[in-house]
Design goal:
Shape: globular
Number of helices: 5
Largest sheet: 2 strands, parallel
Keywords: DNA damage, Methyltransferase, Transferase
CATH topology: Arc Repressor Mutant, subunit A
Distance between the termini: 28 Å
CATH superfamily: Winged helix-like DNA-binding domain superfamily/Winged helix DNA-binding domain
GO molecular function: methylated-DNA-[protein]-cysteine S-methyltransferase activity
Number of strands: 2
Radius of gyration: 13 Å
Number of domains: 1
InterPro entries: ATL_DNA_repair (IPR052520), MethylDNA_cys_MeTrfase_DNA-bd (IPR014048), MethylDNA_cys_MeTrfase_DNAb (IPR036217), WH-like_DNA-bd_sf (IPR036388)
Protein name: O6-methylguanine-DNA methyltransferase
Structural class: mainly alpha
CATH architecture: Orthogonal Bundle
CATH class: Mainly Alpha
EC number: 2.1.1.63
């Protein structure tokens, strides 16, 4: 595992339940500002049985970026943590749940 991936995983693991972070914020937190697309690609390669909270990462507009079954899986997991989401994937209380 390379240093970038290791840093992303380590920081992702620390996002608390009921909170979210954007791809760009996670990249910056991991020490790689301006690498938000790489964060998305890295998360897409996670094993299906991962325990990392990948579902707590959304785009900078406060929307779920995934589609199909992955969209519904992320939406369901976030809702179980108390995060309200519109049908179009927009986080309703984005300003209150986003990590600063």
């Amino acid at each position: 595992m390379n240093e970038f991936t290791q840093s992303i995983y380590m920081n992702l693991a620390q996002i608390p339940k009921g909170r979210i972070i954007s791809y760009g914020q996670l990249a910056k937190l991991a020490g790689y500002p301006n690498h938000s697309r790489h964060v998305g690609k890295t998360l897409a390669k996670l094993p299906k049985d991962t325990t990392l909270p990948w579902h707590r990462v959304v785009n900078s507009q406060g929307r779920i970026s995934l589609s199909g079954d992955s969209f519904y899986k992320q939406k369901e997991r976030l809702e179980k943590e108390g995060i309200a989401i519109c049908e179009n994937g927009k986080i309703m209380n984005f300003k209150q749940v986003i990590m600063q």
